[in-house]
């Protein structure tokens, strides 16, 4: 008894029809993918170049540029603004109170300026006029504690010389303050002054 229904097992090239069709489909699909990759390869390469350029520009803008804005010159500017502002805020005389307060006012941010005006009108001016108090501040040392492109914190060590009607001889004291600065329209302004 012989069976001639299927292919001979001895013939290696003879494959059943149901396995030859998937192989043909696989070859056709592989050719399509190759053609597609051949077309898209230059586009993908161009996108890679654009992405790399974008990364480099982003690194410059967000990484390198802020470092330039917080270099030694920026630190010196912040320290100078904090020192001059502290002297202006803490130095006054009963004969020139309004001029002294105006000199200090333009060195302050809007929020701190409102606080400073209330404080000087309600406390400092009446006490200075009543007791004929004169204070003179001088910066001993100052250093930047924090520095960012738009804000800074500066530690200022000051020497205060105070005279009054009751104490005509100058009383010298030293103090340290922490000055918080904000950069507004390219200028460092005092946003807060805390005694340490």
TrEMBL record:
Cellular-component GO terms for this entry: membrane
Primary localization class, coarse: membrane
Keyword entries, A-Z: Membrane, Transmembrane, Transmembrane helix
Annotated TM spans: 40-64
Localization, UniProt: Membrane
Protein name as annotated: Twin-arginine translocation pathway signal
Lineage, broadest ranks: Bacteria, Bacillati, Actinomycetota, Actinomycetes, Mycobacteriales
């Amino acid at each position: 008894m012989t069976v001639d229904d299927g292919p001979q097992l001895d013939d290696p090239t003879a494959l059943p029809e149901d396995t030859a069709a998937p192989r043909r489909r696989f070859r056709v699909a592989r050719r399509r993918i190759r053609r597609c990759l051949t077309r898209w390869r230059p586009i993908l390469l161009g996108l890679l170049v654009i992405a790399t350029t974008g990364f480099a520009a982003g690194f410059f803008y967000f990484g390198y540029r802020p470092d330039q804005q917080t270099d030694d010159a920026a630190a010196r500017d912040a320290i100078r603004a904090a020192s001059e502002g502290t002297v202006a805020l803490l130095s006054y005389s009963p004969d020139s109170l309004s001029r002294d307060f105006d000199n200090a006012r333009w060195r302050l941010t809007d929020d701190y300026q409102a606080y400073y005006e209330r404080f000087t009108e309600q406390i400092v001016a009446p006490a200075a006029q009543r007791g004929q108090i004169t204070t003179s501040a001088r910066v001993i040392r100052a250093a930047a504690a924090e520095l960012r492109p738009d804000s800074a914190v500066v530690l200022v060590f000051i020497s205060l010389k105070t005279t009054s009607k009751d104490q005509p001889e100058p009383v010298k004291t030293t103090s340290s303050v922490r000055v918080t600065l904000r950069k507004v329209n390219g200028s460092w302004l005092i946003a807060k002054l805390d005694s340490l």
